[in-house]
Amino acid sequence: AGGAAAGRGEVRVVSGQAAGLMRDAAAFLTACARRLSVGELLAPLCELLHDPSAARLACEAWVALFPQLWRTLTASEQLAHYKPLLSTLQRPAHNKTAGHSPNVVQAWLAALCACSPAPRLPAATLRSLAARHNAWHLAMPLLQQSLALAPTEPAWYDALASLHSALGDRDGHAAVWKQRALHAETRRALALEQYGAWQAAQDAYAECMSRWQAGEMTLVNTPQPELALWEEGIVRSAKALNQWELLSEYAKAWPGSQPALLMECAWKSADWERLRDLFRRCDMRSQAALKMLQTYAAIHDGKLAEAEGRCNEGIQIALAQWCSLPPVSLSSHTHLLQMFQQFQELQESAQMLLELNTAQRNNQVPDLNSILVTWRERLPNVWEELPAWNDLVSWRNHMFSHINNVLGRLAGSENPALATKGYRELLWTVVRFAHVARRQNLPQACVSIIAKVQTVTAGVAGEQLHDAFSKLREQARSCLQMPQYLKQGLQALLQADVQFMATPQRAELFATKGELLLALADASGGLSAGDEEAVSQAFATAVSLHAEMPRGWLLWALFYDRAYRTLLAGNGGSAMQVDAAAPPPTSGGAASPGGTAPAMAERALTCYLLSLQLSATKGANVMPRVLSLLDALPGETAARVLGEHADAVPLWQWLPWLPQLLRGLRKGYGAQAQHVLLRLARSYPQPLYYPLRAYSQSHLGTSAVGDASPPALWKPPAQERAEKEAEARADEQRAAAASASAPAAAEGGGAPATSATPPPLTS
Fold this sequence. Notes:
- By secondary structure, the chain is mostly helical.
- It has helices at about 1-5, 15-35, 40-50, 55-70, 75-80, 80-90, 105-115, 125-130, 135-150, 155-165, 170-180, 185-195, 200-215, 225-240, 245-255, 260-270, 270-280, 290-300, 305-325, 335-360, 370-375, 385-410, 415-420, 420-440, 445-455, 470-480, 485-495, 505-525, 530-545, 550-570, 595-615, 620-630, 635-645, 660-665, 670-685, 685-700, 700-705, 715-745.
- The chain is extended and about 130 Å long.
């Protein structure tokens, strides 16, 4: 109210106790201004800032004060303070507080960011301070400011790209290089890498490198940093594609320049002698990754005490690195989380080795189930890149091989299942790895992973490996994504021994065989009559073996729908005529692929509805096509097909398509649509209200709704049969009762039949 009064130009006098307080405060401030000095003001402030719990207050006071002091200096004075400032930032004593937040370096860099103009520190110094003192958010703005002032100096680009790469910021790293790159080919390869198209990115980098080596004029003047980027891009792509043989050859060709890569390739290929030789020859800075490699070698040699020490050292280094990262959860923490999981599994591996050694001494079976079950449940996420999976799976494969060797000696010939326990765990893990590679659209990596596991389990019978079906399925499905491997995938299915597999598994393999045949025919130039017969027979065999397989019905529906579209396009989109001689497929057998367009549409609709009955995961994709086929088919055919399968489709599948279902009331399958709508009204009245009201107002009108008589209700054939059977049973019971009452009436002197009925109930 006082503010409003002041805005209107009114002056209000404060009276009472508030006025006295204001007079006392004014008198105190006046006395302080007359008697106190700046030193007397700074003394309590210094005492407060030197309090150990007031580090953030000291940092904020310094950040607020230093830019004002810097602004009062002349240009020559600022230049004179540059070297002392640089030496202050580079003092080794700051490393003692590197793990604190805020620390001395963070306060200095925050104050320098607030200065105008900010002093230009060397790029290498800023990069080192950011990584060591958790000052990423402060060093990057300073680097960007310096880059804007000197866009041609490569040092700023190198520092910025290095910081983005250390944080795992692939987009930021690509943005820096897109601004710096000299050639459009480099920017294209970076874009492909950003989108995860690793094979295309590798091809783009390799093409740039080969063109440069060939002396092409457009690439001959490529600067050295861009050449190094091409080389690093090929290495990153090879890791993402699981091409460790290629990386091993590259690292062996340049052993002095890539010692870390050579060590990684050595342990993954189980070349432990080379790994120990590299430990002796290469003087590398102590890192968590190096400690992990040393732990791998120690566990392999059976030196469990040394392995425990190396593992603890690596965990401490990783924790220190975690503290030096930004507090916000970014992709920079992902690599360390994966590393912590690997350290945990190294400790569990040492525990398993102890149990195996004890079991060998006592000649008894070790209990490894708890750790093996934990390993099955503790896997990386499906969307994580293949290097994270490869690090985990490679070490587990080493352990599984060792477990299998020990259990094979302990089990003997009496317990063959125990002798293959390690093989079963290895096969399950590798098949899961191959599945992730296929899901990430890396079919070549999936095929190579499956090929490696086949060499390991070559001497084991198929019935002893429970995941042989999964291996065969992943191999065939990955071949579907590569046209050049379609024949190999089909050959693998034809040569597979399916006798030990369950019926649903054999059915899924037949469905995959139909997909391969269809893709192979498309790659050869189109479907012939024989190809259509083979594909249809494969799908028919799949659903005959396992009628409750939604994927088989969906694939068969897509096959018939494709045939229908082809025939309809060949007829110029003309109206269809029903072909009564071509019945739709049923769950008991196959239908011939030949026929007219209406027959193909009817079969496709039947298969679509059967797939919806068995699985609701594809409903959002299948239901629009079902409604389209209902409109395309003649009314009698659509009514018959919908009537046979409408009750089995889950009701909630129709909820997103209520307007389309209401429009079907005026078509040939209107009675069946009305039956579905009545069921929806009983179960889901609320979602149906608005579409039904809008339909009645827009299509029928108020008078038509009031005058029209309700149509006769349609009932499904099964319900009609059940009602007829119930009515027949009731007639039989009434006839039996009448025949039983006739002799009793004759013995009683011919009493009238109505005397046997009960009297009416009274009120």
